[in-house]
């Protein structure tokens, strides 16, 4: 089927950012169409070269059996270390009943350096899958803006907006003659409908939920707006929690829970902080206090406060790190003290403890050293609270 210079067809597509993309829109409901004889856009509309290697030759996310892969990558080159990091967006389904994949390149009336727009929608179980650093994100709808690549570069960065919502192709008679919106002129309509618990994030054993994701190349940070809730599987002591939002710093490869962060272990530990750097693979969370919300962890009658608290995600145990010029305070109930009286820790620890190594095998073993922290080397600071 041909219309308005856009080709529609059944295609297995893997797009690398920076490739020259004509003005066309792709769906998966018919055999590949031939380019129209008189295209509206200056470039000749076309479908991808079917002789090109299929997308399955490169690592891809799981998709429906028999489904083709429609994907796109943003490439970000860090100003600090010069490394390239990629954000991959994939539509996992293939049925026209559950979603679409569409591309819209600059048209005749657009500036030469205008970005390419891409729309991914999928209401099937796999949704639209976005991979950022260690996080795999599943959403129903994503609209991607991809900048034109600079000279000598194979890829380019851009912007991603993702949430609940739907997208569809417009009939030609639905497009107003004076339409200025790029997607409308490409006969595509995207309707975002952000709602709580519709953006699903998986990092290792941890599953988080939010309502909207926005990534922008200006600072390289993907922000997932909340309310955010999460759960980390653990056979003996599962962990749940909440925060106002999530920030994923692509350059630093760091995921941070931000704003009124609360961690609740089923065993009774409740921890709070203004920010929490979260690394599921290292079994470590860094609770970072702010003047408005210091880091604090409470279990039973034991309370620990510090500028930074390191949290062992497997054991749900903590120990404090004293920032330069900061203090560590706490109240601990001595189990063998008659009457269960509480003792107060010194307001200032003698020295700051070093941060733990990122590799768990390098940490001290609390099973062989009763004074060791489950997260790092022993030293002159408050004992870990179990």
Automatic annotation (TrEMBL):
UniProt signal peptide: 1-27
Record domain Organic solvent tolerance-like N-terminal: where: 199-280
InterPro entries to which the protein is assigned, alphabetical: OstA-like_N
Compositional bias of kind Basic and acidic residues: 74-87, 150-160
Sequence ranges of Low complexity compositional bias: 40-58, 343-352, 369-379
Keyword field: Signal
Region (Disordered): 32-92, 146-178, 330-386
Protein name stated in the entry: OstA family protein
Organism annotation: Deinococcus radiopugnans ATCC 19172
